[in-house]
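Provenance

Sequences were taken from public entries as deposited. Structures were produced by running a predictor on each sequence independently, with no templates supplied. The record for Enoyl reductase (ER) domain-containing protein from Xenotaenia resolanae is shown for reference.
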Amino acid sequence: MHKEGFPVVLGHEGAGIVESIGPGVTEFKPGDKVIPLFISQCRECRFCKSPKTNQCVKGWAADRYDVMALEETRLTCKGKKLLQFLGTSTFSEYTVLNQIAVAKIDPAAPLDKVCLLGCGVCTGFGAAVNTAQVEPGSTCAVFGLGAVGLAAVMGCKFAGAKRIIAVDINPEKFEKAKVFGATEFVNPKDHSRPISQVLAEMTEGGVDYSLECVGNVAVMRSALESCVKGWGVSVLVGWTDLHDFAARPIQLIAGRTWKGTLFGGFKSKDGVPEMVKAYLDRKVKLDEFITHNMTLDRVNDAIELMKHGQCIRTVLSVSQP
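Predicted structure for Enoyl reductase (ER) domain-containing protein:
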């Protein structure tokens, strides 16, 4: 039994080419360009058949989300079983995927760019467009300006928001946010009073939509409290399962909505190819997220950059980029 979810091959955001297919696989052929999906879409379960959700009964998320790996795996090393992180394991030259967890994409798509659509960009963009359903002319606040937060900023702009307030404690992130459509910036460290009060003063009582892209329960509360009463919508985008989150009931009684999103609400096999097309049609940005390119053997260097906030996205390639 692997109670702790180790040993595991990490990585869940990638793109590649089909090397071979197993018996019964009809959707793919060797040579196809694909993106692995950490949320499957079997198209047959009650969730897949419902337009209300992108969760699939057959995905890893339905079962072992606590260790982020299913017991079942197709990877071994020196005869020992290796678990597959989120059923994908992209930090590897090869991986083996279930066909319900792979999206076939346009053969013209550059793999070293569209790999970002395997998680972060779809998550942030979809949180704004699909989950919050940001409306034209609205005012939005995005908390946390990593790749997911920047994608949320891009989603707000795509949806026609008039004001997009970017919130982060690292002022170096602000120039980058402007590229994706942010109109204003607030650094909570510059203020002695709560960020929700600062935003309320800037926006006649609060923003129409707020998106929490950190995964911090205190920030989630701030994001909710930054929404205007009556119709404000706050979306939890940052992944965490460490602590309870809390707020006063009056926040919701007064008409605010608090909701969460996984993979930006995109049904994976349908949404990912659409986002690839949107990139090829220049409707969404990807290149601007990529600050570093490295080879796979430098994965630890890439993780260090991320831990210290020195990159937005580092793309790892199997061979020399």
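Residues 165 and 184 are 5 Å apart (CA to CA).
The chain has a mean pLDDT of 94.
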